[in-house]
Design goal:
Shape: globular
Number of strands: 4
Strand content: 15-25%
Distance between the termini: 35 Å
Radius of gyration: 15 Å
Helix content: 40-55%
CATH topology: Alpha-Beta Plaits
CATH class: Alpha Beta
CATH superfamily: Transposase IS200-like
Number of domains: 1
Order of helices and strands: EHEEHEHHH
């Protein structure tokens, strides 16, 4: 039997200490880099977006991939790339850890829209409120 899967995961992680370092013009480049790097590593990053202090990412796992490995590769390579650009006044790093929630195939478009509209979501509430709602909705 051939291996197959349909595993979608919504990932969230923050900058170290939630320092707002991902300014709009710069984060567009960061997210583009992350998506390109993911393709090079044969990862399926369907959607990526965020605001100054955190990232949301919708990924589809291949049968040979784990959530932990994907996050490690995305965070590690992007952290090195960001640091190499010398555009920040302080060293860059991501906060240790991440959030990962499985996504039902019927909810993929909803999650995409949620990720696309991060800026407008955060006009209404901050990251702490978003995480609280995220945890409540997903029974965490």
């Amino acid at each position: 039997m051939k291996s197959y899967s349909s595993l979608w995961v919504h990932l969230i992680w923050t900058t170290k200490d939630r320092v707002p370092l991902l300014h709009k013009n710069f984060r567009v480049s960061v997210f583009r880099y992350m998506k390109q790097r993911a393709q090079q590593k044969e990862m399926i990053v369907d959607m990526i977006n965020g605001i100054e202090d955190h990232v949301h990412c919708l990924v589809r796992l291949r049968t040979t991939q784990s959530v932990a490995r994907i996050v490690k590769q995305l965070k590690g390579s992007s952290s090195r790339w960001i640091s190499s650009k010398n555009v920040l006044e302080m060293p860059f790093s991501w906060q240790v850890g991440y959030g990962a929630i499985s996504v039902s195939p019927s909810e993929i478009d909803t999650v995409r829209q949620y990720i696309i509209h991060q800026e407008s979501h955060h006009e209404k509430w901050n990251l702490d409120k978003e995480i609280d709602q995220f945890e409540e909705f997903n029974n965490i």
